[in-house]
């Protein structure tokens, strides 16, 4: 039985790493690029936020946050139209490529802003990946969420706000 599990891991690992590798390269490149701002919430931060949600009695949010490995956000911040075009082109190439396994799950346009959600699902208990791209006159942003999560619950993340001091 151990041999079968090890063999399966050896066979599947390159496929899982390859898909993750492309989004890592994209976010690493733009998180360090001039004209872009970035935020990365790591596993430890997600666990701390999960504990806080549990302490407040929001078990569903606590479970969601506990399953997320990281959240990465990169936004155009002072870059020019050429930077925005290159960023969007590379993001759409990543999301739209069948090689990386993302599928478009939702698209919306409102007041000159377009937002698309792409999902790369994994069978339980493997991690899934959500990629949100938004662009237009107001902002150009890519958000990447990686971990075990229920897609219905991900919208709850937008309700989390920092406390005003």
What would you say this structure looks like, in words?
The chain is an alpha+beta fold and about 160 residues long. The chain has helices at about 1-30, 45-55, 60-65, 80-95, 150-155, and strands at about 35-40, 70-75, 105-110, 115-120, 130-135, 140-145. The chain has a six-stranded antiparallel β-sheet with strand order 1-2-6-5-4-3. Helix 1 (about 1-30) packs antiparallel against helix 4 (about 80-95) and helix 2 runs antiparallel to helix 3 (about 60-65). The radius of gyration is 17 Å and the shape is globular. The model is unreliable at about 1-20 (pLDDT under 50).
Set down the secondary structure blueprint.
Layout: H1 2-31, E1 36-41, H2 43-55, H3 59-67, E2 68-76, H4 81-96, E3 103-110, E4 113-120, E5 128-136, E6 141-147, H5 151-154
Antiparallel strand pairs: 1-2, 2-6, 3-4, 4-5, 5-6
* pLDDT < 50 runs, ≥5 residues: 1-20
Net shape = globular
Order of helices and strands: HEHHEHEEEEH
Number of strands: 6
Biggest β-sheet: strands ordered side by side in the sheet:
1-2-6-5-4-3
User: What is the number of helical segments per DSSP (H or I, 4+ residues)?
Assistant: 5
Give the termini distance in whole angstroms: 56 Å
Radius of gyration: 17 Å
Largest sheet: 6 strands, antiparallel
Strand content: 25-35%
Can you give the helix content as a percent range? 40-55%
> What is the structural class?
alpha+beta
Mean pLDDT: 81
Give me a quick take on this structure.
This protein is α+β, with helices and mostly antiparallel strands and 165 residues long. Helix content is 44%, strand content 28%.
């Amino acid at each position: 039985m151990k041999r079968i599990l090890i063999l399966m891991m050896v066979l599947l690992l390159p496929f899982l790493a390859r898909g993750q590798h492309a989004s890592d390269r994209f976010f690493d490149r733009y998180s360090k690029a001039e004209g872009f701002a970035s935020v990365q919430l790591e596993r430890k931060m997600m666990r701390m936020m999960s504990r806080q949600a549990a302490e407040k009695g929001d078990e569903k949010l606590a479970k969601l946050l506990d399953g997320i490995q990281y959240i990465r956000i990169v936004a155009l911040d002072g870059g020019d139209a050429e930077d925005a075009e290159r960023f969007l082109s590379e993001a759409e190439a990543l999301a739209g490529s069948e090689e990386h396994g993302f599928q478009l799950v939702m698209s919306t346009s409102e007041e000159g802003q377009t937002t698309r959600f792409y999902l790369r699902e994994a069978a339980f208990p493997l991690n899934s990946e959500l990629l949100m791209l938004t662009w237009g006159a107001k902002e150009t942003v890519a958000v990447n969420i990686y971990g075990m999560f229920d897609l219905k619950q991900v919208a709850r993340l937008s309700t989390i706000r920092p406390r005003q001091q």
